[in-house]
Design a protein that fits this description.
The structure holds three protein chains of three kinds.
Chain A lengths: L7 H27 L7 H19 L2 H25 L4 H20 L24 H5 L4 H19 L1 H11 L1 H6 L4 H27 L11 H11 L4 H23 L6 H21 L18
Chain B lengths: L2 H19 L5 E6 L9 H16 L3 E6 L6 H12 L4 E4 L5 H10 L4 E5 L8 E6 L1 H15 L4 E6 L4 H17 L4 E6 L6 H13 L4 E4 L5 H9 L3 E6 L10 E7 L2 H13 L6 E4 L6 E4 L7 H16 L9 E2 L5 E3 L7 H5 L15
Parallel strand pairs in B: 1-2, 1-3, 3-4, 4-5, 5-11, 6-7, 6-8, 8-9, 9-10
Antiparallel strand pairs in B: 10-12, 13-14
Helix pairs in contact in B: 2-9, 3-4, 5-6, 5-10, 7-8
Chain C lengths: L1 E5 L5 H25 L4 H9 L1 H4 L4 H27 L7 H17 L9 H27 L3 H21 L35 H19 L1 H11 L1 H6 L4 H25 L13 H11 L4 H25 L3 H18 L1 H4 E5 L6
Antiparallel strand pairs in C: 1-2
The chains are: A mainly alpha, B alpha/beta, C mainly alpha.
Chain lengths: ~300, ~350, ~350
Amino acid sequence: MDLSSINPILLIASIMVSATPILLAAIGEMVVEKSGVLNLGVEGMMITGAVVGFAVAVNSTSPAAGFLAAAVASALLSLAFGVLTQFLLSNQVATGLGLTLVGLGMSSLIGKPYEGIKSPTLPKLDIPVLSDIPVLGRMLFSHDLMVYLSLVLVACVWAFLKYTRAGLILRAVGESHDSAHALGYKVVRIRLLAILFGGACAGLGGAYLSLVRVPQWTEGMTAGAGWIALAIVVFASWRAGRVAIGAYLFGGVTVLQLNLQAAGADVPVALLSASPYLVTIIVLVIISALGAHGAPASLGRPFHASS
Amino acid sequence: MNRRTLLSTAALALTLGFGTAAAAQDVTAGFIYVGPIGDGGWTYEHDKGRLAVEEAFGDKVKTIYQESVPEGADSERAITQMALSGADIIFTTSFGYMDPTVSVAAKFPNVKFEHATGYKTADNVSVYSARFYEGRAIQGHIAGSMTKTNKIGYIASYPIPEVIRGINSAYIHAKKVNPDVEFSVIWAFTWFDPAKEADAARALIENGADVILQHTDSTAPQAAAQAAGNVITFGQASDMGDYAPMPRVSSIIDNWAPYYIDRVQAVMDGTWETKETWDGIGPGMVGIGEISDAVPAEVKAEALALKDAIAAGDYHPFTGPLNKADGSVWLAEGEVADDSTLLGMDFYVEGITGDIPQ
Amino acid sequence: MIRLEKRPQPSRLWTILAPVLAVLLTMFVGGLLFAALGANPFEAIRTIFWDPIFNAQFASFTRPQLLVKAAPLILIAIGLSIGFRAGIWNIGAEGQYIMGAICGAAAGLALYPSESLLIFPMMVLAGALGGWVWAMIPAILKTRFGTNEILVSLMLVYVAETILGSVATGLLRNPEGRGFPGSRNFKQWDAAHNAEIFSGTGMHWGVVFAFIAVIGAYVLLTRHILGYNIRLTGEAPRAARFSGVRPARIVLICLGLSGLLAGMAGLFEVTGPAGQISIDFNSGYGFTAIIVAFLGRLNPVGILLAGLLMALTYIGGELAQLMLGVPGASIQLFQGMLLFFLLGVDVFTNYRLRIGRREIA
């Protein structure tokens, strides 16, 4: 087996690109779950973001406008989930699944005219000085803006939850909505804001797929990325830093298995194809065996002020 | 009365009903698609064939279709419903529809069935497919001539004879012009997953490949190659001309329109009979997309000469001497592969490293 | 100001009225959708809800097909609903369905071409076992390490799909299939064929087992102490533990049961309507069944009706594509809307709408 043809510099650069969509969706979902809401509709919101972002970017020839529109569209879609679960107190698991169905169906209707065309894509940044550093420059400092924005977003979410009063309230609502309510916090309003934020992040992740990573629009193109994002939140034990690690690990295994195939590694292909999922399971087991959980106590439970 | 006779009676009544109510030559042609029409590849080209039928016959032919029909239980129901709705001829356009097509055909003896890429025929079931490997030979020739790193990446879908045939054909002709050439194959285990195809293309490029061949249907590899710069690719199933002249330097185009028009005409004339069609470049079922200017003039001329030789039947892409990957002799000097070996091909030719997943 | 007030008991009237209202709302909004797509809305709604059952041209074929399509959905949903009642979220029934089909088919194919009458029952057992084993992975990981079962069961779907692709092109490939992927066709092997029990009715063994499962689940949940413990675990986990219910045991039973039923559904499908193991054998029944379970409010009889309704929208949707040329995606959207409306309208079952200011309690 000759693996010398795998170039670690390029490999890491690829991993960063491949991890960014799930990272964006996962960090949004983490905030949602921190507020005590389980939204299984990430896949539906991502694909809506992918199609709306693509359509707007094509029509306006501006990828930035595409990303913005994607965030808004997916946030609006998540509002449907918010209204159903927060005001009409529907079951969150079922509503989330319904959101995925609606998102998949709607996106392919919207996307019909955009199949098979090219879109403007984000330019790779050429950061002066930094991108000229040998090795590291190519590896870490020659990406497009969204790669860095996603990492900044992770840092912001981390700081928000840890250091701000609003973050504390959000966590309190997720831990015990009844006590939070008793203290006078608007549980429903806070959860709605979290759901909107999660929707916007999922939309950005979807748009990153259709505008940068692939880049094109095709029906069903998220192909399960939203579910992976959900897995990564649990994997990360609801901690922002670990969400980033989880997304990069999953992206890493996905890209690495293709690189191993390309290099002619002597491993059964079926095993390689299944490896990202197997690795996720193994890491999940290790984490849970270590006893690090941290699931918000009210996760998935409906809240009604009179109860 | 059991279901079989019940259904065929219903079908008979229907066909008769149509015969008297409408003008005698009116025909309804149905199409069952495995993917969405907008996949830009396989299903898209079949649907272009359907539209060509509409254009050719105008009001005399009505076409109906159903897209994204999963192979398996759902397909048998979809085909039956199409037959019940009064279709006179039904094209089922994916390999996985083979057994369902044959089974529905037995219940509707008056409806004609055409199954793409399979091998089971009946009195009212024909099969048709295209010799894509002829196009692969031309791709291999261009790829072998143009690679500078001597590494060619191949994104394969599933380990089935058609895909293996394509890899072998491309390899043989790349090797002929460039003895140092190496193939690395990624099995994607999907026909269509743009994100995965893009990742696979990037992985191949990062491993040194400067030519990407694909047997999956999206244009994602083209986009990845374009981003990488000095990498060439070929359109698959459809022309993918948006990516010309670079990275897409040529393409294999599935052109089903002439066949569909021909078969619908046969139903109209009452001359339809069971047929096994396996056509290539010559009859036009396999089209070679324009070779772009990124290809050096002499390579282009050679590729066109190869295309003409194949089309005229003067040259067969699988001509001996050829050995199998395990070193055993497959074809002796000058010997030409027979169709049944090609149809069931499950081995690499000598020189391709790695294993076919089992 | 409008607000909701919790009813002391779920409203009986609304339990029945809510689904009807939801279907009517879906018809209305769906009609607008089809009109926007350029189809006649009345014709579209009639094609989806009426034609599969009553259209003279199709109904003799589609009516039995409703049972065929609904059977795996009901069978899987019943298993899932028991777990959901206990707060155990098996999202990976699709994987258990695939593994059931693979194991059952493999067990049968190992004995090809024997015509023994024992083959089919043995395949059913092997299929159930395959689904059970696949569900035991998340179950044991949960009881042993506390690993989240939603994710493990979901990840295992992707693993099962890879295995399916691999056996369809390798281990179980039909040796007489000229190298093409896919196993032998069970329809051509009488001993292993899950044929219709009464010709022309759509009644195959999967349908029979779906009905048995509905009755079994009903008895379990209403008449049996285990069913009581399951419900208690879901509604009041702490109370359940005090009354001596062992949570680990409930996890193993619930996941095991749903895996068992999903595996059986896979086996009935592969030997019956599908006919063979192929690369794309699975068509999302495992995921759709989750929706069916919730549409049926986790109630066995409700699931039976929800499964039939879901089958109706599938087959009606196919007819709408065929006859009216509406795109397949609009049907998916239509089903999503149906689910949304049901979930939304359901609020009236448990809550009362009050207009006016809240009295001071």
